[in-house]
Amino acid sequence: MSSQFKAARAEAERNEDLNILMSGLRGSNIDQSDFAAAGVEMQLVEVTEDADDKLPLVYDPEQISAYWRRRPVSVIKRILQLLGISGGFLSNLLVDAAQGKVQENEVKRAIEIRGIVTSLGPAYIKLGQALSIRPDILSPAAMRELQKLCDKVPSFPNKIAMATIRQELGADPSELFSELSPDPIAAASLGQVYKGKVRATGEQVAVKVQRPYVLETVTIDLFIIRALGIGLRKWFPEATKRTDVVALLDEWAARFFEELDYVNEGRNAERFAEEMKKDLPQVVVPRTYAELTSRRVLTSQWLEGEKLSQSKEDDVGELVNVGVICYLKQLLQTGNFHADPHPGNLIRTPDGRLAILDFGLMTVVDDNIKYGMIEAIAHLIHRDYDAILDDFVTLQFIPEGTDLRPIKPVLAKVFDQALAGGGAKSINFNDLAADLAQITFDYPFRIPPYFALIIRAIGVLEGIALVGDPDFAIVDEAYPYIARRLLTDRSPRLQESLRYMIYGKNEVFDADRLIDLLQALETFEVSSRTALGDGRDVSGGDAPRAQPAAARQARRAPPQQDAPWPGFPLPPGLGGENGPFGSGGLFPAPMPLPVPVSPFESGPFGQPLDIMGRSAPRPAGQTSAPAPSVPPSSASSTRQALKFVFSDDGSLFREFLMDEVVRSVDAISREEFHNGAKRLGLDNTYVPLLLPGAKPMVRLAPPPSQEDRAQVESVRKVVDFLISGPDGKRAGVAADPLQQLARDPNTVRELLPVLPAVAQEFLPEFQRRLASRVAARFVRDNFDTA
């Protein structure tokens, strides 16, 4: 999958428009300056406060409208101010429209607007940045130019900043901070940041102070833009039917108001840190000092570091992987999504961790969207286009109530081309882009705001990774997390998605698909160790370490015995040459024993213990316990999947596979009974069944069906993978997976403590389902039930 993804990316980058779009989504063009360019000025609206008539602190368009309708002079002044700054640009735009050159001059106008937006104030700067990640609204070239828009503006006077701290925190800054930098270390459209030290504790902090008159300037601009949008909706209904400008503005403005409340930003950061600390302690979030924070002043922990996008350290790739898991966790698990993912907010700390900054803008992803994302992936894998169209409605790409019938054949053509065989080079990206553009033009497709943020977050991380690793594929990092969610989440919708992923539309068990998920799960476990930064996995266990080659070869195969484990003899025919699976059998017979658990865990007189805890005889001439066998690397990684199956997290997986195991055991039993009857010449024998309603004669030992044999082979394939790994046999391990397991005492030792509990959970239900299946088949095959 990753190789196809990388090849497709390389082919797509040869298309100029797609290359520009991908570059933009990766944040390659974002201005990361800490200060404004020379000559930049920002015009704000100053209004005398009225104690009885104040602006709302949360977004309320009706209240904002009423406030500014009572101040027509201020509104007229602001309109004239805006026209004075942007009049030339608007004139050029009208000329382009009259001459039919809007698209031709789009980039030129984007460059012009980038030059004037900073002067218009915070609302226009933030709106421009929001549009710069909306490929459904702007062309790739216009997006690229708007991404160069700089949020950094000249700082406001320190005297005003200190007065704001005094007013908001109720004390003089010198009483609260023993040190404050004489000038701000960074200044943006909403506020500026000072470096300080808390007087009470001596801790270094960042103190962000909001710019004066921001609320007034933002609300008057929103009032003007919204009034214009209402006018457009009234005067040009056809032109605005596809994109409801007023609704988009209201959604964006509500989030923007949240960014103006620094108390809310501090709470967002604390909640985000709490959600990440268990699984991703490698992610750092600056601590918020609540006692030194108010609506217009935010005090947070000072973090040293460098922008991840500019770091030359060797661990940047690992931190990108951590970032991908972090954003997937937000998107698919917590639903609390960091909505300002640009390179300046991702920091590599000196101790090699990933710091995420700026939590003013957050987006909530509801459960319907979270589950819908995973469902869409499953449907796409199986090319279930009817279901994919429903997913597009769920994910808000298509409005509810839209007639989906005419869309399906066009969408199927696009996806069939993108997923066709022949590799990425067989895809004509010009045609593909044209087809997608035509779909969005002919049908009411749109990119929901939350998805634009997801694209940006993943795109930025990919852009950082590609600098040091041209072969980086985001799918390599994303799919393992999705696999883990599918295999462990107990929500009914995700369990149904797991079932669909493995069985598809035709309800046929696909062992290869299941193995893909298990391999991805193992990859996630390795990534989780990186996320801890200390060589341990998320459960706290030690990561396996490589062993010297001499140790790996130190022990020869021990003597053979007649059962896989003492006390567990095989039923006749299930193993050995004549078993249903050939010489290996589903269970090996014979299997090597004894298996020493460890030279330090011995029985009486220093003898090694076998896997049942009993003293095992030493080979002749041996005076000390042999060195433990260390499995090959493939088994070492596969052990993660095997451990998962027997872990608490694997209980859902065990339930999921129960019916497959029941079917396989049933098929094996009938195969063996048929083979035994065949050896005795009784395979075509019919006997009377003297029961009411039964058929007069039934076959004594009917052969298993082709479906039965396929079922057994599928389960055998999964067992092979769990014990031997995908390349186990090619790597020269034991021919049978359980023989390989027997030579891996570390794995056996880890599994033995949990086996009784798992057996107690699994076996009663297994027996019940097997008996039910046998009884149902007996009735179906031998009684006339019509």
Structural class: alpha+beta
The dominant shape is: elongated
Residue runs with pLDDT of under 50 for 5 or more positions = 422-427, 533-638, 729-735
Number of strands: 15
Share in helix: 40-55%
Beta-strand proportion: 5-15%
Total number of distinct structural domains: 3
State the distance separating the first and last CA atoms. Answer: 48 Å
Total number of helices: 28
Main sheet makeup: 5 strands, antiparallel
Rg from C-alpha positions? 33 Å
Mean pLDDT: 76
Q: Can you tell me about this structure?
A:
This protein is α+β, with helices and mostly antiparallel strands and 786 residues long. It has 3 domains: 252 residues, no CATH class; 167 residues, no CATH class; 234 residues, no CATH class. Helix content is 52%, strand content 7%. It has 28 helices and 15 strands. Strands 1, 2, 3, 4 and 6 form a 5-stranded antiparallel β-sheet that branches. Strands 5-10-9-7 form a 4-stranded mixed β-sheet, with helices on one face. β3 and β4 form a beta hairpin. α14 runs antiparallel to α15, α21 packs across α23 and α24 packs across α25. The chain is elongated and about 105 Å long. About 15% of the residues have low confidence.
